[in-house]
Design brief:
By secondary structure, the protein is mainly α. It contains 7 helices and 4 strands, in the order H-H-E-E-H-E-H-H-E-H-H. The N terminus is likely disordered.
Length: 212
């Protein structure tokens, strides 16, 4: 038996208001799922989305901890080797390039940051990617300077150090080229792996928002 209230029809104005509210909620949900705006064929990403992604922390899993620690150790090692070779070049030969010092220092700092990150539970990995971008440019410049310095092949003179050794200096320059080449490749590998982990975090976060 239906009551009089059940038999009453819902006013058309109330239906219109309900339809409008549902449409607004649907539009808001769609904007949360797809935070991109397209106008005149141009897709624009809001500034808040970029800032949100840069601050999004990634869970440092056991495998990621292991990678960051081991990779960070060797990354810092390349910097120590570069500085050591640069000191050897200054002692055993005249050198007008000191790229081993500044480029090696950035490699050491990068390795230390990676090992510190490995000890954390969460960290915004996009910051590591930004630092890798800087190191990639520095290692490239260091590699170019190493090749130029090796091609010049300066000889020992009366004004050179007492420890000047042409053969040893030539070998040190060659090893410095190898060191920066390995550091360059290592930087690219770090960028690829860390960027992939950050993108996975962003994808999982977007999926959570969509499910919500």
């Amino acid at each position: 038996m239906q009551s009089n209230f059940d038999k009453q029809e819902i006013p058309s104005s109330y239906q219109g208001t309900t339809s409008y509210v549902n449409e607004v909620n649907s539009n808001n949900l769609f904007s949360e799922k797809t935070p991109l705006y397209q106008q005149n064929g141009i897709v624009v990403t809001p500034v808040y989305q970029t800032v949100w992604r840069n601050k999004l922390p990634t869970t440092i899993t056991t495998d990621l901890k292991l990678f960051l620690f081991i990779s960070g150790f060797f990354y810092a090692l390349w910097g120590i080797i570069a500085i050591s070779l640069q000191i050897g070049l200054i002692v055993n030969s005249y050198s007008s390039y000191y790229h081993g010092f500044w480029a090696g220092s950035f490699l050491i700092v990068g390795g230390i940051i990676m090992m510190i990150t490995a000890a954390k539970s969460h960290y915004p990995l996009i910051r590591l990617v930004q630092y890798y971008s800087i190191n990639l440019g520095l290692t490239t410049v260091g590699l170019v300077f190493s090749i130029i310095n090796y091609s010049l092949a300066t000889k020992c003179t009366l004004f050179s150090s007492l420890y000047c050794d042409d053969d040893l200096a030539s070998h040190l320059k060659f090893f410095l080229i190898i060191t920066f080449s390995v550091a360059f490749i290592h930087t690219i590998i770090n960028m690829v792996i860390v960027t992939r982990e950050h993108q996975r975090t962003v994808s999982r976060s977007n999926s959570s928002v969509a499910n919500y």
